[in-house]
Design goal:
By secondary structure, this protein is mainly β. 3% of the residues lie in helices and 39% in strands. A hairpin with a 6-residue loop joins strand 1 and strand 2. It is globular and about 40 Å long.
Length: 115
């Protein structure tokens, strides 16, 4: 019998989503974009679960409701459930980040830009 996947020796480029867990932890890279042409990583959307980002390298712009937060490496944002949100990398260089989301969101994630 194999043990459930509750640890990831290397998270980069993948998501850790143990069976039965209510959380998913992912480390992804967002490619850069020109300031006047954002490359959205997800369309503007909302869902009942909270979602959180922690920026490892570079910068992410995260729109939560009507506010846009530009977060550099070492910074974080938590968007409460029910709040419309999207995010993108506003710089030319790639940005690496950790994303924490609810388990049911994982089924809807996976846009190629998230990897």
């Amino acid at each position: 019998m194999t043990a459930p996947q509750v640890a990831a020796p290397r998270l980069a480029g993948t998501a850790l989503a143990p069976a039965g867990s209510q959380l998913v932890l992912a480390e992804w890279t967002a490619q850069g974009s020109a300031p006047d042409e954002p490359l959205y990583q997800a369309p503007l959307h909302q869902h009942p679960e909270d979602e959180a980002w922690y920026v490892l390298e570079g910068t992410l712009a995260i729109r939560a409701g009507e506010h846009v937060h530009q977060i550099s490496a070492g910074g974080a944002v938590i968007v409460p459930g029910g709040t419309a949100h999207t995010f993108w990398n506003p710089r030319l260089d790639p940005a690496r980040y950790v994303l924490v989301m609810g388990a049911h969101l994982r089924a809807h994630q996976g846009h190629p830009r998230h990897r």
